[in-house]
């Protein structure tokens, strides 16, 4: 048995299944969902485990996606952290990039840095951009700063020196000195987090990784302890933001790699699904309780970016983190997102969410606000008997009470308000989907829309129609697809290094040398976790740009041992043209970053075809009731039980397909088919 | 209500998101770092008559430009020479239609639906070079606009879908970076096309009637909400004086005069009495002044809501011609941004005491731009390092002033990292840190200014810079104290120091250091009301010295 757990803002999901040892096909999938337990996240997992009486002794593989890192940052609940940096540069962290997105608000307040100035201390040392030591480091000069840190109760120390990406010798020396002499601190240096240039971004990343290090370590140790107590005997794996898994020890060394742990796995699951059913161009939309996330997958490969920005909004610059992350656009628009009226009387939905507690008003747990989920309940797109997997009946009194202020303010009925909320929520999601597709030069008509998460299948058909996406795919287990995706992941580590030089065939031995060094680093890291060198699969990428330009594109090198300058140049010109709409054939090309991906392929299952059991369509029919489809009218609609729908079945809308963790809405002008793998495929009726 | 409320809201939101898509198109396809990195550009959508519907800005200096430039286009292309489908108009006239300086080029595309003009898409971006005496087309010593580059007085660069090759060839022959300049031209045209296509789709989906209705409602919404906010501001007449310290030739200071009249219906800003236009390039056109006035109005009414023409229906500008803030041709104008900042600063200084909870004390009031050119010591290539510098902001009624923030004229602008700077320009950054040169004391403390010091490694290099605010400090508000000054110093290898403020081509030698200094912002509220814990924390953090704490906060 294999188990995956995914902690979201609202729910903690657990998926477990067996797979056939011969053909590796998945069988006997079981799903468990429990409320997320902020503060003690491991509790939610243990609840989900006990809910289905899972015997951990029989589990061979346990993988986990966690929000512990992102929560510690957004709630400012990390550890007291200090920074040691190069003389003259202690204020880099606070000056940041000097930017102000909130143009007309002169009362604008810049975000407080994660380390206050008195805890940002300098030492005399300097390395230049060529990596040469100009001023040597005197390790003991740090002693007086450390004495102060001890007095101030500092738990974690970040070390970031100028040009440490190029030559980390001083960072290494100082870290070794402090680790030996002052073992009570958690230490992290910038080159362990990233070897990309730009001192503010690197300092920010290092500081944030240090800030979450004690809390992440404690959490992961706790979880390991509890799982072992319940009988789990093997290693625990953790989902990273780059779409791969890794070991606990690896994560503890640089926990910031977990920043988008959960969402990444949903996107990865979609990639695997796409491969299985022969769909390589996908737009993936994952609607959870608090947010909607979307990502574009081109030709079967998710886009990995190395700069992530947390808390960047239309009014704030946010905090950059240099760590590989699947390129995801996230908006505050989930099932629990709250509907409200702005100063001008315009309806808004989100980003504030009713979250796990108290949840949408229809949960009847004291939620006073009207949310997207409530609107779907009011339109009967979520059936009262199958609400939250049938565990609970929606509280209609509470729902009406929550809608009342909106009804009064706008002089509208509950039904009108509910339709409006869904429309506004859809409009928000369309803008997010456009931002990853059309705004970047992609035509949605070339893609299929994969909708996952508790809310995705409810909105997918409408969004696809608006964007002219020909087909919507609702995967089997769509409601817990992130957890599912983790079980399809390999081990993955990314190494990125800035080393600016001209792209020139004369320097190819140097290129190989740099990659060799990076490979050795990867081999050492994997060997520490007892993986064999021969099991590692490498991919080599270069970030290239035109001399004089700032933006670069990432190019995969097909064969490092046989580099061909013409091919690389040609591929770069083409990629650049595609991404930025122009190429400069005669301009010199520069290498900016080296990017190595080191993967260890694990023995993972494949998505199996489902063989029909001979169930009849009418046996899957649960009810026929009126459903409100807004502009398309109110229609008597069939409610089907997803568990009883079999490959080959097809029907026209209006219909709702019900399963434990979500409902799929088929509007009147649409039809659905169940494919060989039991996915729901929705298309528009001709 | 004729149109379903939610449909109307969604059309309005869609227009805003179309604006965002246009903005992203330029960022993605432009070839000049000043556009795609510093975001020195703006995009807009107006209705068929030039009324602004949606706008996306990276900086605030183009706030009024988007609608004014379309209005001016409509005036210049009348019945005799009408706008046609497939036309694109190009304009960089500083003295009319939202003009700033020649480097900022506007591209205006009329959009037709079934033969009817239904909208304009428009953008304006700072091109790296537009010709003229100096690289970058900016000079502190120009005396006529002819020295500052090429001038395109509202011409059709594209006519009924066909590019005007004569213009393209002239551009190619007259600018220093023809390839990227043309690239930026095509990027701007493409962004307008992206917007046009989406607007047509929007109209097709909801119908022309719904589109027009939604646009009208959006305008009314902008007007309604800003009028409501205006009426919260006490009626009265408020006067003040500001200064331009120098015209680039050592003359000055020159006064800016302002009288603001607030009634329930209007905010009227009267700059009558301001000094006549200057010999040097520190001039602002009336149309640039319009942006300053609108920005100030927006800041005190609806700073966080999207801008449209409705929002500015109740603000008026009075100013005679040929002043320092309403310069006419052929006044040089390339350093307009310093005057723009002085105008905004004066507006806020005048309004600050009227709405003290909406505006902060004075900020460092200068873009603090420097240009350093030389030969790279390792690569032997010629370089020009051009950069603005961040500084201290004024404190406000709710919090201390920001530190390390670019001026009001900026927005989504980014500094140059030391690590990329050292490689690109071959200098060594010695210090990038806050100073405590004093000032800005108050219940809320003004944000510290900062130092940026670097050492020249080339055999020789040349320094040009314009830092206003070198003799008049940032101002305090509500009994808060004034802040400090902007200036820069050259520290020679023998230790001698030379202080500068506005200067062109100071010769530097290997080993010389340049130290740039930006001001500390003004304080807010009486310093003696500052809680002692905050004073202690500032001391602990080194934001103030022991002596300052004792003298101004009575703390020891």
State the gist of this model.
The complex is a heterodimer of chains A (686) and B (556). Chain A is of the alpha+beta class and 686 residues long. Chain A contains 17 helices and 33 strands.
Walk me through what this model shows.
- The complex is a heterodimer of chains A (686) and B (556).
- Chain A has 686 residues and is of the alpha+beta class.
- Among the domains of chain A are: 2-74 and 217-261, Nucleotidyltransferase, domain 5; 81-208, no CATH class; 491-600, no CATH class.
- Chain A has 17 helices and 33 strands.
- In chain A, the strands form eight sheets. In chain A, strands 13, 14, 15, 18, 21, 22, 29, 32 and 33 form a nine-stranded mixed beta sheet that branches.
- The longest helix of chain A has 31 residues, at 199-229.
- With 556 residues, chain B is α+β, with helices and mostly antiparallel strands.
- Chain B folds into two domains: 5-221, no CATH class; 360-556, no CATH class.
- Helices cover 29% and strands 23% of the residues of chain B.
- Chain B has eleven helices and 20 strands.
- Chain B has helices at residues 5-29, 33-36, 65-76, 165-174, 178-206, 208-230, 286-300, 336-351, 418-425, 532-541, 546-553, and strands spanning 41-47, 52-57, 88-91, 104-113, 116-126, 155-159, 162-163, 236-244, 254-262, 267-270, 315-318, 369-375, 382-387, 428-434, 450-455, 460-466, 487-491, 497-500, 502-509, 513-517.
- In chain B, the strands form four sheets. Chain B has a seven-stranded antiparallel beta sheet with strand order 2-1-5-4-3-6-7, with helices on both faces. Chain B has a five-stranded antiparallel beta sheet with strand order 14-15-20-17-18, with helices on one face. Chain B has a four-stranded mixed beta sheet with strand order 8-9-10-11, covered by helices on one side.
- The termini of chain B are far apart.
- The model of chain B has no long low-confidence stretch (mean pLDDT 93).
- Classes of the chains: A alpha+beta (686), B alpha+beta (556).
- The interface between A and B is large, with 65 and 79 residues.
